[in-house]
Write a structure and sequence with these properties.
Blueprint: E1 11-14, H1 18-29, E2 34-38, E3 49-50, H2 52-65, E4 95-102, E5 177-182, E6 185-190, H3 217-222, E7 229-230, E8 236-237, H4 241-249, E9 257-259, E10 262-267, E11 270-273, H5 278-283, H6 289-303, H7 320-325, H8 331-341, H9 351-364, E12 373-376, H10 382-393, E13 397-400, E14 416-424, E15 438-442, E16 452-457, E17 469-476, H11 481-492, E18 494-495, E19 510-520, H12 550-563, H13 586-592
Parallel strand pairs: 1-2, 2-13, 10-15, 18-19
Antiparallel strand pairs: 3-7, 4-19, 5-6, 8-12, 9-12, 10-11, 14-17, 14-19, 15-16, 16-17
Helix pairs in contact: 1-10, 1-12
Length: 618
């Protein structure tokens, strides 16, 4: 590391995943000297988001990582007789069974490169027949940057007095600035630097039109910076712990969000929209008047079910699915409640779990829109970076591409998540607007398998190029990711073919590109899983399979209270305008508060002006 950096720290955080980043931000905010390191060249770890070329580079790193052989480390000779070190493996074993398939037209030429890329990035992907899984993709090579240490010290912004209004929900593309991921790094561009003739969304929704020009692989490569592809697929409950923490700490100023516009269900081979709010229920044409009354009566009960224990106490030991059958609900309503509102397992969730999940769903309705969910613009990878920025503002030091060679070795975890990322040419359910953000749960069909969660993102989320959709599939692993998820992919999508189909009304969305991989779920690993762990070393798990981020927030808060007992967890930062420095101790106090920027030090590229939530129906 650089000679002018501090050599002593109160807290050292390894890895820039979401729980690690929240913990680092909380420690830095409470006055601890924090060093935050990551062996990777990007923020987020397994919570990161990538541009398309960045994802190909990540896949290449994964392939190279599998070939690493641990040799006798040179640091052993520096260990003293009274010291003991535990070596860290250089291999990343959290990602397995990676498979890539390209169905789009193979028209890639030598001169095709990503728009706005700093260097030429050729990519050659072999066209894959859907029935031939043994074919794999050829991934591009990229030169590594010569920089080995990256330190970030962003500019602080004056906090808003109204914390509730500090979380901004955007229903149109952000203007004034854009924050993009370029090969794992964050690039900020002003609106004046963007091309105004194309790829800029207007406030008016565009309607679906039959596409004569098919999306080709070279178009995906050229528009690769328009993609922000998440390794982990999650949404934010509007009244969840993460939203509350973003508002409380004022970290929400660093991010922008969009509403999930609709909740879908997959029944009898077709996709349909689920009514969830009161207005949706009474406007629905899928439900009869009797069903509407039954549904509203049951949802009203769920909102205050604790006050009526006689209604459910006798059913606590049975599954929520069986409980719904006792409530004189039609099969149609039972399906919607189980898979699209409670979103619980048909066989593993009991009555209390289902009632809690339903109440949480209803409690989150209406805060920022007509669904309970929010999605961060530019992808989930923005969230760890927001907390890293807060940590840096209060003096935390960041070092990327800096691996720690010895500390604690993680034990293997058998629990895994199956993930798939798809690029398609249209939505799974057509609507008047093509800017829909949807969540769909496909129930398990066979015993021993799990329900699959599908999240479909449109281009206005800044995660894919115009004219395409980015689709995330997630479930708990029972086999490899492809074996778990490909049956659902085949039900919802059809592989791209050159043949033109005249009648596109009944046609499934075309699959242009697909990625499958398994990710380790270590969320249930406790401190007791580690042998002889020193008392001053704490362990964070990676992403879990849940839809929300509550597990990461709870984990970070627990670790922070262990490190800094009796300290407030991520309090709001002080308003620079309210700081009064005594003239007699100007020099000493200025040095102590040097990490707090002046109010007039804001620059348009370092901060965003967040106002009241903009709520509009799509």
């Amino acid at each position: 590391m650089a000679d002018n950096l501090p050599s002593e720290f109160d807290v050292i955080v390894i890895g820039t995943g979401l729980p690690e980043s929240i913990t680092a931000a909380a420690c830095s905010r409470s006055g601890q000297r924090v060093l935050h390191v990551d062996s990777r060249s990007y923020y987020g770890g397994n919570w990161a988001s990538f541009s398309f070329s960045g994802l190909l580079s990540w896949l290449k790193e994964y392939q190279e990582n599998s070939d690493i052989v641990n040799e006798n480390p040179a640091w052993q000779e520096h260990i003293l007789e009274n010291e003991e070190a535990i070596a860290l493996s250089r291999k990343d074993k959290t990602i397995q069974h990676v498979e890539v398939f390209c169905y789009a037209s193979q028209d890639l030429h030598e001169d095709v490169e990503e728009t706005g890329a700093l260097q030429k990035n050729h990519a050659s992907v072999t066209s894959v027949n859907p029935t031939e899984g043994e074919h794999s993709a050829y991934l591009p090579s990229e030169d590594e940057s010569s920089s080995t240490v990256s330190c970030q010290m962003p500019t602080e912004q004056t906090p808003n007095s109204d914390l509730e209004n500090s979380l901004e929900i955007n229903d149109v593309e952000a203007t004034g600035e854009e924050e993009k991921h370029c090969d794992g790094k964050t690039c900020v561009k002003s609106a004046s630097e963007e091309e105004t003739s194309e790829n800029v969304l207007t406030t008016e929704d565009t309607t679906l039109q039959p596409r004569k020009n098919r999306i080709t692989y070279s178009q995906i490569i050229k528009e690769g910076r328009r993609f922000n592809i998440d390794l982990v697929s999650k949404l934010l409950y509007s009244r969840g712990l993460l939203i509350d923490l973003l508002i409380k700490s004022n970290v929400s100023r660093y991010a922008e969000f969009k509403n999930i516009t609709r909740i879908l269900a997959f029944r009898e081979g077709r996709v349909e929209q689920v009514p969830c709010s009161r207005a949706d229920v009474f406007n629905s044409k899928q439900l009869t008047m009797v069903e509407k009354r039954m549904l509203m009566k049951f949802l009203t009960f769920c909102m205050e079910y604790e006050k009526h224990p006689d209604e459910y106490k006798a059913y606590e030991e049975i599954t929520f699915s069986e409980y719904l059958k006792t409530q004189k609900l039609t099969p149609n309503l039972q399906y919607f409640l189980l898979h699209s509102i409670a979103m619980t397992s048909e066989t593993a969730s009991n009555t209390i779990d289902g009632l809690k999940a339903t109440k949480n769903f209803l409690h989150c309705l209406g805060r920022y829109g007509n669904t309970p969910f929010l999605f961060p613009l530019y992808g989930q990878g923005e969230l760890p970076q927001c907390f890293c920025r807060m940590c840096a503002v209060f003096g935390g030091i960041y070092c990327l591409r800096h691996s720690v060679q010895c500390l604690v070795v993680d034990k293997e975890s058998r629990k895994q998540i199956s993930r798939s990322v798809l690029i398609t040419d249209r939505s799974v359910l057509k609507a008047d607007s093509d800017q829909q953000i949807s969540i769909l749960t496909v129930p398990a069909v066979e015993t021993g398998t799990f329900a699959v969660r599908v999240i479909e993102l449109c281009s206005s989320t800044m995660t894919c190029m115009k004219g395409t959709y980015l689709v995330h599939l997630t479930c708990t692993s029972s086999k490899t990711a492809r074996e778990d998820l490909e049956p659902v992919v085949q039900k919802l999508f059809t592989p791209y073919t050159e043949t033109e189909i005249e009648n596109e009304e009944d046609e499934k969305p075309r699959l242009l590109w697909a990625l499958y991989f398994n990710m380790r779920d270590s969320s249930d690993v406790s401190r007791n899983s580690y042998n002889d762990l020193p008392s001053n070393i704490y362990v964070c798990s990676g992403p879990d399979c849940g839809l929300g981020n509550d597990n990461a927030v709870k984990q970070a808060e627990t670790l922070f209270q262990q490190i800094c007992p009796n300290e407030d967890f991520c309090p709001p930062p002080p308003n620079p305008e309210d700081i009064v420095i005594d003239g007699d101790s100007l020099q000493s106090e200025a040095s102590e508060s040097s990490f707090i920027p002046e109010a007039n030090s804001e620059t348009p590229k370092e901060s965003r002006s967040l106002g009241k939530p903009e709520l509009s129906s799509q």
